[in-house]
Design a protein that fits this description.
Number of domains: 1
Number of strands: 0
Strand content: under 5%
Shape: elongated
Largest sheet: none
Length: 130
Amino acid sequence: MASRLMADAVVLVHLGFILFVLFGGLLALRWPRAAWLHIPAAAWGAAVELGGRVCPLTPLENSLRRASGAAGYPGGFVEHYVIPLIYPGALTRELQLILGAGVILLNVGVYVFVWRKWRTRRTLTARDAP
């Protein structure tokens, strides 16, 4: 029972990490220091997808599921949980490349926006200073 709960917790952490990889740059709009956590996380997420690797959380979850008497699953977290929600069929190498590129493009766009906002704030602050 405990192993199953821990496996479910790993799934939630994994999903949270993916959401942070995709949208964590938006936190930098409010809390600029969030970028120090988000940029490495986004780089890791893109590297896993572009490299065709499996995130270490996937084997951990499978191990916990087997320890609880349940079967694990083949493939990665994205392939097992996310892709069936978005796309029918299995995760292909081409789709992994698209997802990895999407992570990079989305976050570059967000950080360009964040950088412009920071720059505008600095300009306005410098202009208002005596």
